[in-house]
Amino acid sequence: MAINKNHEFEDLNGIKCAVVERNLTPARLQFLKDLLEYNGYTTVVVASPPPKAAAPKPATPATEGGNLPETPTVTEVPPAPELFTLGVTDSTFNATNAVFGRLLKTREGHVVTLAYWQQKEAISNDEVPYFQKKA
Length: 135
Known about the structure:
The protein has three helices and four strands, in the order E-E-H-E-E-H-H. It is an alpha+beta fold.
């Protein structure tokens, strides 16, 4: 059981894993999977369960005049996007500690920054640590 939301554990495909992120799109999954595997972690990917759908509203009884209301048309709900959960087999892994502790490297040899992890920057600019940058 996790102490807090930043360090969760779960059995993924029967393997005890530290959960890196949940509800990942395929593009985000590929980015994180490549980054973590380059840094020597064994990754496990499973499909996230689909979100729960809201229950349909019950039909209303007869309205004025004794007539039954028209049956509402049923609109098809578009299929939920396919999302994934990513975990690593190293149970000591914590994504927050790995990023802010500067433990991960990119393929180019730069330290992974928060902006790079969140895919806000295409290149990790690690020249000045986040805590020394001027706002």
